[in-house]
Amino acid sequence: MNRIPVLPTLLTLGNGICGFAAIAYLSKIRIDGSMGRQEVDWYFLIGAGLILLGMVFDVLDGLAARLARCTSEFGAQLDSLCDAVTFGAAPAFMLLRLGQEWRERPVVATLVAVVSAVYLACAILRLARYNCESAADQSASKRFRGLPSPAAAGCVASLAVLRSDLAASWLGLESPAVQQFACVWAPLGTLTAALLMVSRFSYPHLSKHVLRGRGRFPAIVQVVLAVAVVAVVPHVAFFLLFWSYALFSPLRALVTWARRQPQTEGTARVE
pLDDT tens-digit profile of 40-80? Predict the structure, then answer.
């Protein structure tokens, strides 16, 4: 076995530890009246923050490996294992905690648990497919086929942030209204993210697009706008940014398909 690069490996393990810590904090949540609303919000925010921190480690480990020119099969497999924890198990468990809102409706609570399991399965399948495709085709890493698991995890984590009183205050809305939206959209949105992970929609590789892109003025504008959104509405920004990224490709494909339909019908009539 070749020598293992220290810094990239530690950064990758940091990603996995963030996922484990997120699960540990989320396991303390009890939405049954035994905990105050602020305490519940606090644990959800910590769990979401740890998943987001895992994304930072996920970007840094790949960057460190490329700078040190020490990418290896070991690093790729370790990265996938840690991703399965932070971007697979942790968001699935977060949905279970969010699902406590439906504790008085057993059927809905069961469906939420099923969606959590489906999300975890899709995340693992997504990571396994990515490893196989990357090994067979090195150019596959330029764009993702299917929603990347970190982005899907961000979509779920953003819902935990959105349900907090802080998000409602930034929106200028009543907290119960925002909480109800997050509660209803949590299982539906998580199922959508899960299916997008195993889809064939094409998604840009944002870390490479930003960190390694050259001479693309629109990319700079997009980054500036994203930072501006985070600065203005920080507790809502993650919901807007992650879900915009997740839904952009399928919506674009739908618009392209709709535009082609009149042309197809016109050609058929001429024939």
Answer: 888 999 999 999 999 999 999 888 888 877 777 888 889 99
pTM here?
Answer: 0.87
DSSP state of 143: E
The amino acid sitting at 92 is A
138 strand-pairing partners = none
Q: In angstroms, rounded to a whole number, what is the distance separating the alpha carbons of residues 49 and 145?
A: 26
Those residues with Cβ within 8 angstroms of residue 8's Cβ, 6 or more apart along the chain or in another chain: 61, 62, 64, 65, 68, 70, 75
Number of H helices, E strands in the chain: 11, 2
Q: Where are the beta strands (DSSP E) in 189-254?
A: 202-204
| Dist CA 229 CA 79 (whole Å) | 30
Quick one: which of 73, 176, 191 has its CA closest to 134? 73
- Average pLDDT value for the chain: 83
The separation between the first and the last C-alpha atoms of the chain, rounded to the nearest angstrom, is 64
